[in-house]
Amino acid sequence: MDSTAGPLNQLISDALAVIAPHVPRDLTWPILLLTAGLATTIWLLRNGLGAKGADGRVRKLPLRQFLLPVEIYTHVSARVDVGLYVFERLLRPLWVTTLLVGIAPGTEALVMDTLNALLGSGPDLDSHYGWMLLYSLVTLLLYDLLFFLIHYAEHKIPALWAIHKVHHSAEVLTPLTRYREHFLEGPIYAIGAALSFGIAAGLFGWLFSDSIAQATLFNIGFFALLFGFNGSFRHYHVAFHYPHWLSKWLHSPVMHHTHHSYLEHHWDTNLAAVTSIWDRAFGTLYIPARDEYTPWGLGPASQAQYRSFWQNVSGPFRDWSAMIKGKSRSSAGLHE
Ligand SMILES: [Zn+2]
Ligand SMILES: [Zn+2]
Q: How far, in Å, from the CA of 271 to the mean position of ligand 2?
């Protein structure tokens, strides 16, 4: 790089160069076009069926209303999504820089130091396609596990559910709903991401000494594409099912429709980000039937308190203060 950068600057820019490609992609036009293309294919194959209305029920529609239903995109929930998205984007640089740049390299160093101390210096393997694939897979599985564990805790612990509720207060699903989260939630997931990237990088850094860069390069496309596509389509109102056998390995987009449903038998299911492996291991996997009814949101009992932008931003503080005052009920029925 250039000679004007001081050591600290250099350190941060080096760290960002390594970390940034691992950060899952934002909503991008290619991903949105892929979503629209696949949705059109579903419309053709199913003769106009497959899109859900704001009520969470599948109906037959002409193509334009199938892809961009007015009742969903003018819904108050979709408008609040935009506000929460903008708010999240404004705050994001703060925690991405602090947490990812701070925690991931530290974790990587800790893992490498620990392995060096326990097993001596690494075997200095030569990287090839198979190893690169394995590195991608390990990163993905670790990321998915950390995501699962954080998400599980958010669903089971009332003080955390108070934050995560904002994501579940969406009454309709649009690709922007993926970013509908309380501003306190981003940093929690960033810690999980930083830890998983750090552990995988430390392990493979130890195995390959200096030749880790190539595996990292490969990792970008594989991981970002899967995550970007899944994140976008699973918050789209069109029900995209995978064959049953594949759903046992990868979350199909429609499996997140049930995650957002307020029906009790759908609560706390399908908690991972990409694969079905962790949900299967922890008994929270739910593969919905074709055209299964999934009404979205918090349900009639508490939806009215989570409709506007400010209701959502202030939600956790209201809940916490009620908990402190002892007004909260037992942890059973968190969704109410
Ligand atoms: Zn959730
Ligand atoms: Zn969601």
A: 9
